[in-house]
Amino acid sequence: MSLPSEGPPTHRAHGGLAAWLGFGLGLACIGWGLRSLAYRPELLLDFALACLVGLVLLALAWPRLPELRLARLAGRLGDAPDGAASPTERDPLVPVAPGMPDGAAAPVGQSGASDSGAGRFAPADADPEPGSTPGRAIRLGMDGARRRRIVLLLLAGLALTLLAQRGLDAVAFSGRGQPLAFGLLALSGAGLWLAALWRARPAPPADAPIPVRPGPAMQPSSALALCGGLVAVLSTAIVFPAWSRTADGPLALMTYRSAFDNSISPIGGSLWLLGCLAIAWALADRRALRADLRRMTRGGALRLRLDLDRLCLLGILAIGAWFRFHDLVGLPYEMTSDHTEKLGDIQSILDGLRPAFLPGNAGREALEFYWIALLVKLGLPLSFTTMKLGMGLVSLATLPLVYLLGRELAGRRAGLFAALFLALSPWHIQITRIALRIAFAPFFAALALWLCLRALRVGGRNAWLGLGLVCGLGVYGYTAFRPILLAVPFIVVAKLLHDASRAGTLRRPSRWLPPALAAHLSGGLLLGLVVIAPVLRYASDWPEYFNGRSRSRLVGDNAPLDQFGPLLRQNLREHLLPNIKNALLMFNFTNDGAWFQSPPGRPGFETVGAALFVLGLTTALFRLWQRDWRLGTMLAVLPMTLTTSILALAFPRENPSLSRASAALPVAVVLAALPLSVLVPSLGRAFGRRGRWAALLGSALLLVWMARGTTQRYFVEYRQGYDNSTHNTREGAEVARAFLTLGGDLDHLYYVGWPNGWDYRAIGFLLDAPDWNGLLQGSAGDWSDAAEPARFHVGDPARKLYLVGGPNAEAQRAYLHGLFPDAIETFHRSAVPGKDFWSLYVPGIAAGTDPESTDDG
After folding, report:
1. Helices 384-410 and 629-641 sit at what angle, rounded to 10 degrees?
2. Over the stretch 741-752, which tens digit does the pLDDT of each residue have?
3. Three-point CA angle 604, 610, 616, nearest 5°
4. What sign does the dihedral 94-98-100-101 (CA atoms) show?
5. Which residues partner with 825 through β-bridges?
6. Model-level pTM?
7. Every domain of the chain and the residues it spans
8. Is 610:165 a contact under the CB 8 Å cutoff?
9. What is the H or E stretch that residue 402 is in?
10. pLDDT by residue (tens digit) across 160-192?
11. Could you tell me the end-to-end alpha-carbon distance of the chain, in angstroms, rounded to an integer?
């Protein structure tokens, strides 16, 4: 059944408003981009990004403008009358069909229409229309003076919590003050908020049991593809394990020269990929896939509609893009040793290696390196900037996924606020722009949690297969994703127990799991397992390297194997409870001590986000009391995602860790979005037009406050801390590049090392010479004789350049001047105080000239 071309008046007004706003924002983005280019020409990426966003908005809005009139913008701008529910967000006091979630598609064979208009003819995996709400928005249903008193109580709770969080931020940043007093003030604000919800008694969330949708019948072709896929995967991963440690096992999935030199073999890898595709094809509901494609495309083209939600999401993406790509070259400016190692791993992939796991530096998942290698293959340089750009794109793609997760949990307004909070989150921006693989954890966590909740709602085979695929791919992303592998079955079990409790079958476990659901779960699990077959193979062959990072955080580096149990029990007794406390407080008070992830004294959220997070937890607890299993499970999933940080028992100073707890971000921002998703519509219903304007103005002020806090934290505090803590290798590389431009060569470019000094690999990558190693280091442990190898260069007539710095610089320069009296010394003042260095240029000797002769003029 198709929707009529002319929707309700509310939809038409929203569409007109969206078109005009899109047109105006498009012009504003292009104008802002032109001004930024004129002001700072080096920020070319900002200009290109602003113009791209502006052109997209203009292209979407322009076709709608001729059919609109300015009168569409007058009056209520499409809002429903006071006290009335809009067609897409039904008031909880209005009855719904028994057992049906408000706005969800009816199960097959059951009559009734959803808010999306799909009705009983909706495909098995159909979602509601993107602009609709799946009936989980929290609505305060009372009228008149009582509603206004409750809204004022909500505002008082918000104000108290914001005041308390400002105090906590000041205590955390300065290390002085009484956090307990501000904590009690925050609890008082949360108590007022809870009292308001208690008095309002919003309607409990409508819910339906897991739809029982049998999968497709297994046809002979599907059975053959399933068997063939299993044979292909099992034969490469298990049947030939004896060949996996040799380079001449053509059918083995993995080949090894050592644990550090592993690669997916060409033939074995091809069989594995074909097996994964065959299994997915055999298990998928292809009829539902074709129906989805027909619904997405009409007339042979992809359907693109402009409505208020999509326009807001485009604006959120533009904001998120600015915070992730603004001044991308300059912040972070310098590479660390971690970055040079990652660039080396990417270079090995470009050279033909296909690792499933990289055991260096305590173990690293491989997906980031394949992703950046793909960007390099597409024409980008192998550089730190390309790494930042690649992970920025992953971070940007997380925003719509968080919107989908928030919409699934608490309605479309909560989804939009959650995406906006993530776009402005300093936590997410910091772990993104550092250009390590950390940003994959919130990306796959948001996608897996959304797919899990969606699969429980729509019940189709393809939803479960998608969940299995994403869980498998997430293992290749970052270690922080691994708790999601426990959270997903927990959510499924919680939903089954919830349905059994409502149906009165809690004491009959045999009736908890419908047969069709058991088949779907098995299919998703099977697909996930075959996707991670290379990682499982490596983990089986080299467990000491695969689990090296986890083991070191539990009992310490180089702990004897026979002492693992006693050391673990000791660390659990001494550090587990303090680690749990510090991890749970990381959103509001405790901070990550690593300078490359966070400025000192700053918790995970800034002031506004942290305050809203407290109220969001309060709201979720209240909804749990109302038997909202979705938000209830998120309250359990949140501490699960913190376990990779909590279990740093041997290194408690590394907890909380913004990187290891990064999978908590999607759930945390959705919880932080709950208060505004309750307060904003309640203001409009309580105070009419003035309430709506107050909600708009108040939300804008909070978001500006949030943006200013994020800008100060990252572009000022983080920049200062990062620049002071990293070496100025880029400045050294610029001097070296000038030497090469004057006719020098890499073979005669030298860096005189010093303790904890520059990473010569970083200089090599900055000069597009990854194999360069001009490091002089001598033999003394304190590097005091690092310049001594230069004595072998005295007879070389080529021009040479020596880069000198560090605590031994004066002695090293004197030694070099003794070897090369005609050397030209230049002092280079660094942009960061205390990081100055020198260069000594030794002119070349012309061919045929005696090196011992002198020119008297």
Report:
1. 150
2. 988 999 999 999
3. 125
4. positive
5. 840
6. 0.84
7. 1-78, 146-200, 219-297, 336-721, 729-842
8. yes
9. helix 384-410
10. 999 999 999 889 888 787 888 889 999 999 999
11. 97
